[in-house]
Amino acid sequence: MSGEVTETPVAKYGQSSEFGVVLDFIQRMISNDTLRQAFNIPHLVMVGRQNMAKTTLINRLIGRYLLPMRRNETANTLQARTTYPIILNLRNGKRSLVEVKCDIPGIGGAVENPKDDTVETFLNQVTAHLPKEEGTPISKTPVNVTLQGPEFTTLTLVDLPGAHFANDDPRMNLVTQNLVLEYIEKNTNSIIVIVSEVGDPTGDSAINLVMQKAPDFRSRTICALTKPDKLRESDDMGKRVAMNGSSFTLDDNRFIVLRGKDGTDPKEKDWDAETTRVQEKLWFARHPQYKDIQHVCGIDRLMDTMISLLAEKMITEIPILVTQMRRRKKEVDDILEELEDSEVPESSEGKGGVAMKLKENLIRELNKLLFNNTSNTAGGERVRQLFNSFHQEVFRVDPLELRNDDEIRRQQRKLEGVAAPLGDSSENSQLLQRLLYEKYTGVQANGKPIALLSPVDRLLPLSEKLVRNVEATLRDIVQKAIEQALSKFPTLKQAVEAKVVSKIFDKKREQTTEFIRQFLEMQKKSTDIVFAPIPTPREISVWEGFPLVDHRKPHPCMTSKMTSHMKYLAKNLYPEKLLQEIDGSGSHGLMYKEHEEIKNVKRNVVRCFNVLKMNVCDTVPRCILHFFVSQLVDDLDRALEKENLVEFLEERKDIRDKRILCRKQSLALENALPHTQDVLHKLLRMKQGSPQKDRKM
Q1: Strand, helix or coil at 35?
Q2: Which residues contact 572 (CB under 8 A, 6 or more apart)?
Q3: Dist CA 342 CA 578 (whole Å)
Q4: CA–CA separation, 226 vs 196, rounded Å?
Q5: Whole-angstrom distance, CA of residue 230 vs CA of residue 377
Q6: CA distances in angstroms from 23 to 27, 43, 313, listed in the order given
Q7: Whole-angstrom Cα distance, residue 5 to residue 64?
Q8: Computed from CA positions of residues 422, 423, 429, 435, in that sequence, does the dihedral angle turn out positive or negative?
Q9: Higher-scoring residue by pLDDT: 158, 407
Q10: Which candidate among 3, 55, 367, 427 keeps its CA 20 to 30 Å from the CA of 217?
Q11: Cβ(219)–Cβ(82) under 8 Å?
Q12: Residue 161 has what DSSP assignment?
């Protein structure tokens, strides 16, 4: 890159011109990985099939053979040299250097005053460190290559790996084609420079790719036709294509014919870019097919066309781009403000502060959610419905289920002589104790015996089921609070669930179940039926039917709230099936007196058990509210305070990545936006003149 400075095709466009200022802005945008990925920026992109000499063409535009290319080698049998997207940035400067950057840490570097082959060697070394598409040497990771020297003027273009079609490796074909397609589809403001051989362009698969993914290809495509020397002098195919005379057409003067080294001159291998340009002009000037259409021939004309089309695109798109940049800056700053609370500081003190704040938010949310779901307010239906369902299940427990009168009589005879005849009080309760608290053998409808738990013992499984259901409901509520408070910290969320919530709920379940078990055991110590029992529905019907002086008015006591409640309890505690079991007889051998005694025993069993039912319906929910609700939040608070959760404080990866991306975009936009006002001013002036020195567009 050292030596005598000659004017290259690129150097025609003065850096002090309006166009140079805009190009400098575009270069900053394109060379910044963050901005390039965020915005659709006008720029030049080179595409084509493998071995179409795209990189050689770029080197000719630069004026130096710097990028990796074949030197005096046959292309057909060799693998591609460009194996990753190269974002080439040319900059004017006194020092000569090449700088390579990539968004992957550790890849890249800079070399000052390099020779041409040193640049190529440097870039080839980068290839070894890039991630490759499986089964291929191709990488989709773009690499920024900045070439600076006194002979350069600001310009940026992208060189994509050549698309493979006839390759024996289907995987290679697929990867390279998809790379080109994805780039064209995403970058709709790019100027596409297709490099193709002189010939029928409809047979060029790269052209077909462009047509497939760029519906507006005619207005933003330039086709560079190479290797015209392969045609006979009498063959006018190249001329017809260049003049838009083939089936594949572009806007006028968008086909440019180029002729590089054709191997006919033994000194070609020593030609530099400038010599190649001079020889190219001489060749077209004397060729019978091209001498009269030289306005579409040669590397200079290609440069003119590329810059002219890029200028038109910039005039249209950059004002839109600037508006998008300003809007995006506000958006990312708003996002960063939203994500501020979830950022984990580096210091231990900072992490402790974040952990404490998260804990306070969680407890606050738990208080709110648990109150709404367990108090007597709207939103508390979930737990109350479980309590109501529990009441109904308890009411349905039948103390006389499958009991036979003969079995009751046998139990009674065993106790005769031990206790006085059973009365209406609890003084003689041994028979009731056996009927209520001991297992028994029932008789099914088919006459087969079946072992049954005692009526009181049947209440324990129902209570345990209620505990499990309430636990599941409260776990859902707690889980919802954890999701809301810790959704941005998955590791911390898992730690809280495993180390705090699960332990607390296990402890609460064990405490509650043990209390209920002891409470039911306590009920076995009391069979007092002296206090007023709940009347049966039949008894209430008799009361309601008692005649008054005025038959049009009901009895006052029948309209009271207490009576209404008694009716509700009577219907649930004395279902018709149970009344039939009290009245029914399991044996026809009993005398009337014995039958009445058995009925009285069964009636007392039911009445006593109804007292137990109401005790259970009242106490079990109270116990659950005490252990599982009233103390739950406080216990969780103490457990969270006790556990050291700072070590688990790690922000969710997608949020962390989002913050990093937004910060990168915000910083990049902060640096780029101050230049936009001058760029917009220069664009207005560009409409009146050419970006090229001393020429009109």
Answers
A1: helix
A2: 391, 392, 395
A3: 62
A4: 6
A5: 89
A6: 6, 9, 12
A7: 11
A8: positive
A9: 158
A10: 55
A11: no
A12: P
How much of the chain exceeds pLDDT 70, in percent? Answer: 83
Q: Is the dihedral of CA 17, 18, 19, 23 positive or negative?
A: positive
At position 215, the amino acid (one-letter code) is P
Q: Do the beta carbons of residue 80 and residue 162 sit within 8 Å?
A: yes
Tokens found for residue 299: 């590397």
Residue carrying structure tokens 């006028």: 252
Q: Where are the alpha helices (DSSP H) in 63-169?
A: 116-127
C-beta of residue 572 within 8 angstroms of C-beta of residue 617: no
Which are the contacts of 278, defined by CB distance < 8 A and separation ≥ 6? none
- Distance of alpha carbon 116 from alpha carbon 273, whole angstroms: 12
Chain-centre distance for alpha carbon 347: 29
Count Cα atoms within 13 angstroms, Cβ side, for 473.
24
DSSP, residue by residue, 365-397:
HHHHHHHHHHSSSTT-HHHHHHHHHHHHHHHT-
- Rounded Cα gap, residues 229 and 241, in angstroms: 15
Give me the residue label for tokens 């462009």.
210
Chain centroid offset of residue 96 CA: 46
Give phi and psi for 16, each to the nearest 5: -85, -10
- H or E stretch covering 147: strand 143-149
Residue keyed to tokens 């219907």: 571
- Distance, CA of 662 to CA of 339 (rounded, Å): 10
Taken in order 455, 461, 467, 469, is the CA torsion positive or negative?
A: negative
Would you state the pLDDT for residue 553?
Answer: 64
Cα gap 170→167, rounded to integer Å? 7
Residue 497 carries which DSSP code? Answer: I
Cβ-contact 13, 20 below 8 angstroms: yes
Alpha-carbon separation of residue 247 from 194, 196, 216, 294 (angstroms): 16, 15, 17, 22
Q: What pLDDT, in 10s, does the model give residues 139-193?
A: 998 888 888 888 887 888 899 988 876 666 788 888 988 998 888 888 988 899 9
C-alpha distances (whole Å) from 469 to each of 466, 616, 618, 675 are 5, 17, 17, 64
Q: Give me the residues paired with residue 146 across strands.
A: 89, 99
Residue-wise pLDDT for 78-94, tens only, equals 455 788 899 988 888 88
Amino acid 78: pLDDT:
44
Residue 73 has pLDDT above 70, yes or no: no
> Tokens in use for 312?
């038109």
DSSP assignment of 439-494? -EEEE-TTS-EEEE--TTTTHHHHHHHHHHHHHHHHHHHHHHHHHHHHTT-HHHHH
Round the CA-based radius of gyration of the chain to a whole number and report it. 46
> d(Cα 474, Cα 466) in Å, to the nearest integer?
12
Going by C-beta distance under 8 Å and a sequence separation of 6 or more, which residues neighbour residue 432? Answer: 426, 527, 601, 604, 605, 608
DSSP SS3 for 221: strand
Written as one string, the DSSP assignment of 274-299 is: HHHHHHHHHHHHH-TTTTT-GGGBSH
Alpha-carbon dihedral sign for residues 425, 426, 430, 435:
positive
Sign of torsion over alpha carbons 436, 438, 439, 440: negative
DSSP H/E element including 350: helix 348-374
SS3 of residue 575 by DSSP: coil
C-alpha dihedral sign at 245, 248, 250, 254: negative
